[in-house]
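pasting for the record
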Amino acid sequence: MPASYNIVFCQKNLDLYSQSVYDLLKQQYPDVDIQVKDCVDKCGMCTDVPFALRDNALVGGRDARGLYRKLERGMQFLSRPPLPGTCSYKEPEPQLTSVK
């Protein structure tokens, strides 16, 4: 899996809500860049709800399970084949069949 994803957790939020989410993501996605910072400059969020920054976008949940589901759902594209029309999509090679 390519490490084209970046997730950052706030240390205070990790201590209060999201440690289990961090541990599970680190275990399931060892190639993804997952960091913990003392402060991610989202004042007030760290004590309110579980959250993380995914590629600098705020992702929050009502509880740790909700946060995990949102982050995991976003990571599914890393293991799926690229969609037609995207830059990493490669047209399949035509299958040659022999005529008898």
